[in-house]
């Protein structure tokens, strides 16, 4: 150390923060938003410092000045990071629809901090469900028991079925609506409905991988599998090994040099490519399905995959007319 240099130790970090070093304060809240608690009052009222703090940890809103806890942009940023930050917002913002929605979408249980007038609006919870699969857990029990409300909720987001009451997960119309919006909702249906052929086909038509949620008995049934793969080639991944081997055998006959498609490829990859029209000449899919029907000794197929999908789409309407 040279002559004349200061021999005093540097001030502790906490003391420097309390002295109001703004650049140090910005650095601190960037690393840990809760460091806002230790800053000088003028920095807790500094919009840039507070905005950076709540961006890192929404709960740091607790340590912001009253003025900033009443500023909508700051509170919105806080609740987008952590919905529970809503409890530290000004009362006027706890009843603001936009702020409350962002908070509950981010953290469903933060609904307890929302103004009672907002919590009494069913439309508010429908918006939550449309953006968060767990939205139903935020809704009051009277709405969760309301069949019409749950049907509308799963129509907007089928995966909210996961948090419906058991009685409604066993309701065919509720489940049919859910899987029509998102096929993977099938996994949340009651066991009896997961074995319902029409429901499973609706789910597969919407999302081929939904077949994995059906029972093995269905996935091993040649007649059912033929309908499923005609709707979505990727469903082939989830059928029994024996049926999958049959499909590969028939498919390779279609794409080998002397096959009907006359496409010289020794191996089809992915395995379901030929079922989704990615390999071979136009019409390969129907030829493969017809060949499978013969191999599995099933009645000659009268409908194409597109026709089958249209029929499934119309089925619910037909049932309503009959009732």
Terminus-to-terminus distance: 94 Å
Strand content: under 5%
The overall pLDDT average reads: 85
User: Can you tell me the overall shape?
Assistant: elongated
- Strand tally: 0
What is the helix tally?
21
Regions with pLDDT < 50 over 5+ consecutive residues? 1-11, 261-269, 278-282, 317-323
Order of helices and strands: HHHHHHHHHHHHHHHHHHHHH
User: Structural class from helices and strands?
Assistant: mainly alpha
Characterize the biggest β-sheet. none
Specify Rg, calculated over alpha carbons. 29 Å
Percentage of residues assigned to helices: 40-55%
In terms of topology, how is this protein built?
Elements: H1 13-18, H2 22-31, H3 41-44, H4 47-56, H5 66-69, H6 72-81, H7 91-94, H8 97-106, H9 116-119, H10 122-131, H11 141-144, H12 147-156, H13 166-169, H14 172-181, H15 191-194, H16 197-206, H17 216-219, H18 222-231, H19 241-255, H20 284-295, H21 305-322
Helix pairs in contact: 2-4, 4-6, 6-8, 8-10, 10-12, 12-14, 14-16, 16-18, 18-20, 18-21, 19-20
